[in-house]
Inverse folding.
């Protein structure tokens, strides 16, 4: 399969309706009332103006990049004083483990809905949401106490994101094959967008916030969505057999990186005019993508290889870290940038990795099937969702 700068056709939305397989859905559950509404943070005027102009948030590189607000010490006022915790959803145990990073041990465990997949910081950073996929609910967590509240009924929340500016939450309803645009506080449905994307999983947004790029794990393709108009903008077809996973925008806003589990590496995709710009081999089962605290490197978890690859934004592989007998999956970087926290998906454990040496600082036993853990708080003005995509 060719790599390099091979162009792959971007098919307009009108052509994309055919071939949308429908996956079977799971259990339904009844949950309690909505949590108390909190006021979302509002982007700076300059960011709104940049989005209106259609430019990548002004000069992203000149201002320190897309992740310029994610550096060490840049905690938002709302989370200053919040105790650092690592929240681990145990998919096979229907629970969340809370780890105290100072002593590297579980300090609390509580039950949630069926098949929790990810823990997602809210856009305004005032709560976290546990995405209970088969439980058809979101469980809020108060980060000030680390304790859960009453769940909110939501259909098929495999993953959860927030549009830049927090006009909407986007529930990724994987099995229902759609993106549900909801109110970001009470999760009330506003628009449901069916997508020709079998296994719609992960996404990230362009620097100006106008478009998102989402992976289709079982469709060997990516979809582009117009965020403002909540409509499909196109399809980028990947080489046959691809299984795209996590998506992350480069610091300069020019390239999307997309992990591919089947091909064992990451695609580089042009962010403004979606086409393949290359492929970088990293390791078997490439899955999660995380940006270093100085925004200079990208950590790629290779679940089946038991390794983590460290890449420069050019795509050059800098280092490979091995986790003996491990299955590194999803996670995040500590606020001080010194520790990369990852779940061991198949091993009921969490790894704390020294980001300077690549050595394990700790292996912590947790519940069965740990998946999308969230490190909180982290620097950033607001969260775009997933396990913590901060800008």
């Amino acid at each position: 399969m060719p790599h390099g700068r091979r162009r792959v056709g971007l098919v307009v939305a009108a052509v994309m309706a055919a071939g949308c397989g429908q996956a079977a859905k799971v259990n339904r559950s009844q949950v309690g009332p909505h949590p108390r509404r909190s006021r979302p943070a509002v982007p700076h005027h300059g960011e709104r103006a940049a989005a209106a102009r259609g430019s990548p948030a002004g000069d992203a590189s000149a201002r320190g990049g897309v992740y310029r607000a994610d550096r060490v010490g840049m905690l938002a006022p709302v989370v200053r004083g919040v105790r650092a915790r690592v929240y681990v959803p145990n998919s096979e145990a229907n629970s969340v483990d809370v780890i105290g990073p100072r002593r590297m041990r579980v300090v609390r465990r509580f039950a949630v809905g069926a098949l929790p997949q990810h823990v997602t910081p809210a856009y305004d950073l005032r709560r976290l949401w546990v995405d209970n996929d088969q439980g058809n609910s979101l469980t809020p967590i108060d980060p000030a106490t680390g304790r859960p509240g009453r769940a909110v009924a939501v259909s098929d929340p495999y993953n959860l994101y927030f549009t830049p500016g927090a006009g909407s939450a986007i529930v990724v309803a994987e099995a229902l094959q759609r993106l549900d645009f909801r109110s970001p506080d009470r999760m009330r449905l506003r628009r449901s967008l069916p997508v020709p994307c079998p296994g719609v999983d992960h996404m990230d947004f362009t620097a100006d916030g106008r478009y998102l790029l989402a992976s289709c794990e079982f469709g060997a393709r990516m979809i582009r969505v117009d965020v403002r108009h909540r409509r499909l903008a196109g399809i980028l077809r990947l080489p046959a057999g691809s299984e795209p996973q996590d998506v992350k925008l480069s610091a300069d806003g020019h390239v999307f990186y997309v992990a591919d589990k089947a091909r064992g590496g990451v695609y580089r995709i042009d962010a403004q005019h979606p086409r393949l710009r290359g492929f970088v081999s990293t390791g078997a089962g490439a899955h999660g993508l995380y940006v270093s605290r100085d925004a200079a490197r990208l950590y790629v978890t290779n679940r089946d290889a038991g390794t983590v690859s460290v890449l420069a934004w050019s795509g050059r592989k800098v280092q490979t870290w091995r986790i003996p007998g491990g299955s590194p999956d999803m996670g995040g970087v500590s606020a001080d940038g010194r520790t990369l926290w990852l779940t061991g998906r198949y091993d009921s454990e969490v790894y704390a990795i020294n980001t300077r040496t690549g050595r394990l600082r700790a292996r912590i036993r947790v519940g069965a099937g740990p998946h999308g853990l969230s490190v909180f708080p982290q620097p950033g003005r607001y969260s775009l969702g997933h396990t913590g995509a901060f800008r």
